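thought: user wants a sequence for this fold. calling inverse folding tool.
action: design(structure=
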């Protein structure tokens, strides 16, 4: 039963640790303002600054694993470059030797579990007391994320604590010290703490259970074993997080292998320089020495290590373009037709984005010949859509179209041809504006969707009506019949009437004291946004003279 308990605790600790990593990244993304970004950029501006940051932060936290995980989180949040994070990891390997010195000199170890409780407590209370719109809510969320990581690490460590405390080094007596490196590696990988493993080696050396050579090899093994934490932390992350973990693995393994190859020479150097020093302190010296040597070897090659890791973990990017990706700009006449089709593709995506934002399924509305009010009454449930990702793909598509058009313009000097290009680029500009307007309205639309007062619900229905009517009118006009633009003019007059109707509803909202006063401002902004969306779509039709 005790055996199962150990593994259940270890698995639970791992789950808490991985969730803490994910939660921390999300909170960092949400809270990262200009000042925080500047701080991170200044602290990691050069390789040397990043190295020092790794050394000092590890000395403070007394855990290279925690600092490595911080670096992984900042890389995951795209607030730190791959090169800077690798330099921080090099520094953390020097900083982690401070713990061995503390154990050697005063035998003290930081209680990470107590620290995690304190951090989660402060962060949790802060989040509860902070308003939803305050940045402090995210700042306190960062603390909770750190606390969960600490607690998860401590949970994994404690699940094997009894085994570690009762670890009998006398049961592993070998004629060669190199086997002790494997024991150090395995033990650190299991208990998730190189500091705890080194403390075991120091205790065994102090009681003369093992010799200095065996303890030195054991310490080298712990340095390699600590890479398991970073490998776990990179699970489910972006490509650069995996590259940081790979760089950490390469650095620690290569440093460990070199140190083992020159084990006796390094030991002789320590014994020669400190002949009368206690063995426990000598292990701290040895630990510091081979880590500094590893940093000296790898520091000039940080750029090389970065380039090497970038060869791996390439994530397959979703191809956002459908037409221009298949046609070379060297064939201008075919290329401009492909560009037109790609803009039509963009138009469809923007329309789908707008319809999803007002909870109307795109696949249905454009095919059905129902009255708008009936459509709005039929589709009232919110869709589970990741709007940020939808908008991001629209932006990527816009960017690819702009780039393609720019390349076409550069290789063609024909005036008529460039006039066509400029008109197409204007069309993309209008679509970009329309998409941005909808993106900026998402929060407000969600608020009005969940509103309960009659005035707010009426305003929400009116907003939906205007957007839907606009899209239906646009798609009717784009068919190209001769009377379509005249009909569009009539439709836009009715949209103008709906615009005036919105102003009356806003007055009703302002009079209702049960509705928060800022909702009036929100409604006014949304009213102007819908008008801007309508104008952008209308300008596209005018541009193409349908």
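)
observation: tool returned 546 residues.
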């Amino acid at each position: 039963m005790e055996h199962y308990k150990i593994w259940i605790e270890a698995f639970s600790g791992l789950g808490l640790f991985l969730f803490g990593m994910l939660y921390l990244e999300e909170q960092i993304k949400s809270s990262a303002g200009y000042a925080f970004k500047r701080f991170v950029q200044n602290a990691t501006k050069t390789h040397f600054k990043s190295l020092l940051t790794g050394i000092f932060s590890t000395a403070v936290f007394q855990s290279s694993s925690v600092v490595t995980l911080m670096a992984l989180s900042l890389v995951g949040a795209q607030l730190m470059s791959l090169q800077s994070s690798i330099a921080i990891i090099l520094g953390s390997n020097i900083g982690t030797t401070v713990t061995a010195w503390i154990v050697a000199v005063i035998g003290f170890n930081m209680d990470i579990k107590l620290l995690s409780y304190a951090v989660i407590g402060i962060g949790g209370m802060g989040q509860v007391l902070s308003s939803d719109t305050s940045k402090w809510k995210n700042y306190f969320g960062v603390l909770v994320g750190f606390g969960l990581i600490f607690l998860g690490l401590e949970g994994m460590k404690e699940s094997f604590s009894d085994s570690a405390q009762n670890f009998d080094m006398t049961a592993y007596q070998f004629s060669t010290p190199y086997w002790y490196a494997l024991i150090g590696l395995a033990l650190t990988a299991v208990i998730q703490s190189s500091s705890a493993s080194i403390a075991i080696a120091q205790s065994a050396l102090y009681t003369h259970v093992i010799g200095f050579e065996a303890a030195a090899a054991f310490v080298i093994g712990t340095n390699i074993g600590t890479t398991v934490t970073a490998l776990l932390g990179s699970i489910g992350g972006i490509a650069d997080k995996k590259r940081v973990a790979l760089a950490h693995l390469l650095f620690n393994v290569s440093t460990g292998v070199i140190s083992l190859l020159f084990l006796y020479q390094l030991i002789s150097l320590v014994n020669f320089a400190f002949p009368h020093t206690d063995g426990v302190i000598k292990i701290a010296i040895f630990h510091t020495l081979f880590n500094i040597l590893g940093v000296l070897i790898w520091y000039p090659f940080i750029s090389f290590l970065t380039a090497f890791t970038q060869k791996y973990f390439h994530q397959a990017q979703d191809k956002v373009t459908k037409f221009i990706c298949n046609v070379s700009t060297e064939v201008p006449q075919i290329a401009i037709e492909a560009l037109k089709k790609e803009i039509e593709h963009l138009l469809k995506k923007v329309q789908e984005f707008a319809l999803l934002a007002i909870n109307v399924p795109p696949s249905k509305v454009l095919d059905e010949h129902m009255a708008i009010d009936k459509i709005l009454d039929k589709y009232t449930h919110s869709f589970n859509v990741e709007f940020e990702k939808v908008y991001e793909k629209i932006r990527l598509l816009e960017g690819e179209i702009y780039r393609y058009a720019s390349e076409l313009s550069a290789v063609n000097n024909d005036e008529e041809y460039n006039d066509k290009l400029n008109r197409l680029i204007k069309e993309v500009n209008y679509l970009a504006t329309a998409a941005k307007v909808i993106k900026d309205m998402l929060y407000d639309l969600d608020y009005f969707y969940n509103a309960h007062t009659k005035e707010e619900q009426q305003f929400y229905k009116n907003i939906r009506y205007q957007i839907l009517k606009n899209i239906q009118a646009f798609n009717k006009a784009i068919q190209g019949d001769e009377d379509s633009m005249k009909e569009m003019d009539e439709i836009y007059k009715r949209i103008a009437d709906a615009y005036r109707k919105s102003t009356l509803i806003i007055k009703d909202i302002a009079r209702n004291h049960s509705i928060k006063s800022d909702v009036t401002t929100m409604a006014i902004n949304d009213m102007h946004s819908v008008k801007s969306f309508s104008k952008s779509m209308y300008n596209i039709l005018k541009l193409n003279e349908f």
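thought: summarizing for user.
answer: Here is the designed sequence. The mean pLDDT is 79.
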